[in-house]
Amino acid sequence: MKNLELKIPPVVLVAILAVGMWAVSRIALNSHFTFPYVEWWSASMVLLGFFISIAGVLQFRKSGTTVDPRVPDQSSNLVVSGVYRYSRNPMYLGFLLALCGWCLFLENVVSALFPPAFIIYMNRFQIVPEERFMQEKFGASYHQYKAQVRRWI
Hints:
mainly alpha; 4 helices; 0% strand; elongated
């Protein structure tokens, strides 16, 4: 299973899951639900996710560190300011919110299985390996940050 660690860029995973959610919503026609103001709620969630992710990217750029999560060894700074005061993984949180918004838009119960699958995959194959590296590279500073800020929110 270690072969899957840090292999799939999270944005690619989000795209794959979004297409999968759409496909499932077209196949599982008897699994639809209705939600009042679904367009407004779904667009709001997707936009919120987008802005949170972009805030994470901008904070990384401002700190002069890599935004490519597949190469955590290229991290030059421990970023703990901005949106990183509230979440250790705001880019992933933003992706999750976008997937949840997409799920609402699709109004399909089966597609609601995809966002939890995203969390499980990201925790195991992206975040845990990243955290392992950050602990090795930044030691006590990262340990203290981890104790103060949650992984997702």
